[in-house]
Amino acid sequence: MWIFGYGSLVWRPGFEFTSRKVGFIRGFHRGSEKMPGRVVTLLEDCGACTWGVAYEVRGEQVAASLQYLNVREAVLGGYDTKFVEFHPQEKDAEEPILALVYIATPQNPSYLGPASEEDIAAQIIVSSGYAGHNIEYLLRLADFMRYFCPQAEDKHLFSIEEALTSILPCLYYTEESLEET
């Protein structure tokens, strides 16, 4: 069985797996979702694709990973599951792989809906979830996209990162600024 991750699962799956592949799914793009912080979810868009990681789980890993993810994503996150076609990044990749994905829907009571990149960044700065601070979430996801999927364009994600970094200098003192005072 394959499980596709497109948010925090790309750097912190939290379950054992046999192998992993970087690639994409079609028909979705990243959106934003819920408090106490903003995390990504998928919004249907037939012309879009979303990059992430598919994890292969086998044998006892299947039940253990599904049990873990059902708590992490379905119970705590309010996500639904869906099977999608995953397209591996490798040049000699085989046919698409059927993979399970967790998706938060707009019907989720915590779904926040669209907002400007600046508003999302301002919310990220002051928000934490059960897995950590939203700043780390955003920066790790942007790094994953930059280093593992350089051919992919995720303008929305990078615009939020840019908005966040334009705010951050106001929040942190550097050693130089402390020496000047």
- CATH fold assignment: Hypothetical upf0131 protein ytfp
Query: Could you give a short account of the major beta sheet?
Result: 5 strands, mixed, barrel
What is the CATH homology-level superfamily? Answer: Gamma-glutamyl cyclotransferase-like
In the predicted model, the low-confidence regions spanning at least 5 consecutive residues are 32-36, 173-181
Radius of gyration: 17 Å
Q: Which structural category do the helix and sheet elements fall into? A: alpha+beta
Organism: Oxyruncus cristatus
Keywords: Lyase, Transferase
Function: Catalyzes the cleavage of glutathione into 5-oxo-L-proline and a Cys-Gly dipeptide. Acts specifically on glutathione, but not on other gamma-glutamyl peptides.
GO molecular function: gamma-glutamylcyclotransferase activity; glutathione specific gamma-glutamylcyclotransferase activity; transferase activity
Task: Give structural notes.
The protein is of the alpha+beta class and 181 residues long. It has a single domain (2-165), classed as Hypothetical upf0131 protein ytfp (Roll), CATH 3.10.490.10. The protein is built from 5 helices and 7 strands, in the order E-E-E-H-E-E-H-E-E-H-H-H. Strands 1-3-2-4-5 form a 5-stranded mixed β-barrel. Strands 6-7 form a two-stranded antiparallel ribbon. A hairpin with an 8-residue loop joins strand 4 and strand 5 (97-104). Helix 2 (117-125) crosses helix 4 (155-167) and helix 3 crosses helix 4. It is globular, with a radius of gyration of 17 Å. Mean pLDDT is 81; it is low at 32-36 and 173-181. Belongs to the gamma-glutamylcyclotransferase family. ChaC subfamily. It holds the Pfam family ChaC. One of its GO terms (molecular function) is gamma-glutamylcyclotransferase activity.
